[in-house]
Design a protein that fits this description.
Elements: E1 2-7, H1 12-21, E2 27-33, H2 42-45, H3 62-65, E3 70-73, H4 80-89, E4 93-96, H5 106-113, E5 127-128, H6 131-140, E6 143-145, H7 149-163, E7 172-178, H8 193-196, E8 201-202, H9 210-219, E9 228-234, E10 241-248, H10 256-263, E11 270-272, E12 290-295, E13 302-309, H11 313-327
Parallel strand pairs: 1-2, 1-3, 3-4, 4-6, 5-6, 7-9, 11-12
Antiparallel strand pairs: 7-10, 8-9, 10-13, 12-13
Helix pairs in contact: 1-11, 6-11, 7-9
Subcellular location: Cytoplasm
Catalytic activity: N-acetyl-L-glutamate 5-semialdehyde + phosphate + NADP(+) = N-acetyl-L-glutamyl 5-phosphate + NADPH + H(+)
Enzyme class: oxidoreductase
């Protein structure tokens, strides 16, 4: 059994991670930390876990975490980087679900996150945890940077086109929409039902922290500079991301459906929908799947890709468990075969 610790188990991502781990056949949860809730039974805070774990939250303790095989960080940005060096040096493998290790360039990271990086020496070692792109490197990694939710949906939609050099990379457009759980569990007036219910808006148009992460991922498979327009939107639902992606084709003769089906044939959590499909966020609710449809409207030179994920599963906790499976030589889908919830 893999002895697992979870640092920061009280947010939406944290409880989603716990939901998956308590049912995982190869995991033993040994520590779930929270300074604010220390001493409180996990199932008292999250009643969906009643009967599945008898653990209580504990304050972070380096010695206890050091006895784990793997530690997940489901903490705010800037927390993991202060604790990871000691854990990694002690032989503990780490998956960070926040952004501390996602961007390889220290200066770029500090510019977008507004703080100094506490352990820049680990940035070159951190493996970006998108299995469909970095599967082998993840298997061997000591430190995995779990991708952001928007970057997961966007990258999986664009990758086949860019890898094959089929689109002009100087002008890519990602028009994305997310449910409110992506904003976290902390109190926020803007997230109240009376504020965002029956409404729909774009936000962070001048610049969003996920933009450099997306550009970095796409640049690694592109032979030319990547120009990305990324506009996120907030929609009045709890879970889900839909990314509508636009690019200009450089070769209109390619069978795009066949291209996407071939690219993801070996990827158990990417589902390429039949021609003419329009993926729905509800089709992935609670599941670790990304469903994708590719279109070429009116047979023109613009390709449109629709990509949907559950932001808390394939966009966060599920992908983290997928990475854990790879790191410990388990079947990639181990503990991740949940069927999406309908309605």
């Amino acid at each position: 059994m893999i002895k697992v610790g979870v640092v920061g188990g009280t947010g939406y991502t944290g409880v989603e991670l716990l939901r998956l781990l308590v049912a995982h056949p190869s995991c033993e949860l040994v520590a779930i930390t929270s300074r604010a809730e220390s001493g409180k039974a996990v199932a008292d805070l999250f009643p969906n876990l009643r009967g599945l774990t008898d653990l209580s939250f504990v304050a972070p303790d380096a010695a206890q975490l050091g006895e784990c095989d793997l530690v997940f960080f489901a903490t705010p940005n800037g927390v993991a980087m202060t604790q990871v060096p000691e854990l990694v040096a002690g032989g503990v493998r780490v998956i960070d679900l926040a952004a501390d290790f996602r961007i390889a360039d220290q200066a770029v990271w500090e510019q977008w996150y507004g703080m100094r990086h506490a352990c820049p020496e680990l940035l070159p070692e951190a493996v970006y945890g998108l299995p469909e792109l970095n599967r082998q490197a993840i298997r061997e990694a000591r430190l995995v940077a779990n991708p952001g939710c928007y970057p997961t949906a966007v990258a999986l939609g664009f990758l086949p086109l860019i890898e094959d050099g089929l689109v002009a990379c100087d002008f890519l457009v990602a028009d994305t929409k997310s449910g409110v759980s992506g904003a976290g569990r902390s109190a926020n007036v803007a997230m109240l039902m009376g504020e965002m219910g029956e409404s729909f808006k774009a936000y962070a148009i001048p610049g969003h922290r996920h933009q450099p992460e997306i550009r970095q991922t796409l640049s690694r498979v592109s032979d030319e500079p990547v120009g990305l327009t990324f506009v996120p939107h907030l929609v009045p639902m709890i879970r889900g991301i839909e990314a509508t992606l636009y690019a200009r084709l450089t070769d209109r003769s390619v069978d795009l459906q066949a291209l996407f089906e071939k690219r993801y044939r070996q990827d158990c959590f990417v589902d390429i929908m039949p021609p003419g499909s329009h993926p729905e966020t509800r089709s992935v609710k609670g599941a670790n799947h990304c469903r994708i449809a590719v279109h070429s409207p009116r047979e023109g030179d613009v390709v449109v890709v629709s990509s949907v994920i559950d932001n808390l599963v394939k966009g966060a906790a599920g992908q983290a468990v997928q990475n854990m499976n790879l790191m410990f030589d388990l079947n990639e889908d181990c503990g991740l075969n949940q069927v999406a919830l309908l309605p």
